[in-house]
Amino acid sequence: MDEPKRILIADDEPEIRKLVSLLLRKKGYTVTAVKNGKEAVSAVAENGGFDLIVLDILMPDLSGIEAAKQIRLQSPVPILFLTAKSLEEDKVLAYTAGGDDYLVKPFSTTELLLKVEALISRYHVYRGKEVTKGVQFASGISIDFEEHLVYRHGEVVDLREKEIAILLYLAERRGQAIDAKTLYEGVWDEMALPSSGNTITVHILNLRRKLEENPSSPRLIRTVWGKGYQVD
């Protein structure tokens, strides 16, 4: 029998900590709850072994953004930001800090549980796969569209949730130039704002850093000036 998956929650609001902990425990997860980013970083350093971290952004002592940056130095564990901050620039900061997904308060219980399950599932799939299969692309990349896995020179690449969603969206339209607005709306399934292009730019840069032989001269994800991004 598999061990219950472990989730760390950091939020300075006692009601949110209690509610989220209750929801996750009812689904069989083991939950550790702390009240700020500093305690979250310490928990990862001291205990480790978490399968997911849920972070608020605005917290005393250490914000969720700064906590995520420090956690990323220790662990590739997926990070879900659960926060009242809904501006596009807040999302850019969250993803740049190493976040995998973002959910705005007040949130849907169903959406929270779906995101939690998807992030944990993908994390363990990436850690367990070591074989190459799928469609071949430039820079030694192959993509398994069925399993949503990406390989580079035969080894699975640990991509964030939105990173792989962007790559799959482009790869499924191989050879087409997709503008940032269309790409954002296709991946996030919501209307793009003027600042949404910044979110796409951050994710494309991260993808190139992880996938390209030379990120400054990309072969896999190319920029077609005036038109958008294209996977070859």
What does this structure look like?
This protein is α/β, with parallel strands linked by helices and 232 residues long. It has two domains: 6-126, Response regulator (Rossmann fold, 3-Layer(aba) Sandwich); 131-231, Winged helix-like DNA-binding domain superfamily/Winged helix DNA-binding domain (Arc Repressor Mutant, subunit A). Helices cover 42% and strands 19% of the residues. It has helices at residues 14-26, 37-46, 64-72, 88-96, 109-128, 161-171, 180-188, 196-211, and strands spanning 6-10, 30-34, 52-55, 79-83, 101-104, 135-136, 141-144, 149-152, 155-156, 221-224, 228-231. It has a five-stranded parallel beta sheet, sandwiched between helices. Strands 6-7-8-9 form a four-stranded antiparallel beta sheet. α4 runs parallel beside α8 (196-211) and α7 packs across α8. The longest helix is centred in the middle third of the chain and has 20 residues, at 109-128. The termini are far apart. The model has no long low-confidence stretch (mean pLDDT 88).
Count of DSSP H/I helices: 8
Q: Uncertain regions: pLDDT < 50 for 5+ in a row? A: none
- Integer tally of domains: 2
Termini separation: 43 Å
Stated plainly, the CATH topology of the largest domain is called Rossmann fold
Order of helices and strands: EHEHEHEHEHEEEEHHHEE
- Structural class determined from secondary elements: alpha/beta
